[in-house]
Amino acid sequence: MVLLRIASLLSIVLFLGCDALFAQESATVTGRVTNTAGQPESGVLVWIASLNVAASTGPDGSYRLIIPGSRIRAGQPVAITATGTGLQPQTWYISLAPGDQRVLNFTLAPSVGATPAHVIPTLSEWALLGLLLGLAALGVVVMKH
After folding, report:
1. What is the average pLDDT across 25-54?
2. Which CATH number fits domain 26-136: 3.30.360.10, 3.90.1150.10, 2.60.40.1120, 2.40.30.20?
């Protein structure tokens, strides 16, 4: 009986250990979005479209993207875009791997010939917003700040 309990405990430990062994660490990209005057920009969408990950900047212009390790492979190239109302989008191209901790700052210039009150989001921005709102309605947390 004692031997059976020991074998059961050992199999549980091995099972849990194997699960942790194959788990991949999340990659994290953090940073700040400012305008050309160096002031923080809040409410800017920062996203990696190819990985379906997005975040919105807070009042201090900071953002945090957490990419599950299962979604990326070592050295995977990704495009990270920051876009906001009345601002020209900016895209950085980097390589990510599970476990990466990256800092990436954006400086966005005003949109040429448009005032913030008259800028209309692009179709892809509306599509991402719809996706994020749909996932949020299902209880999936996709943006965290």
Report:
1. 95
2. 2.60.40.1120
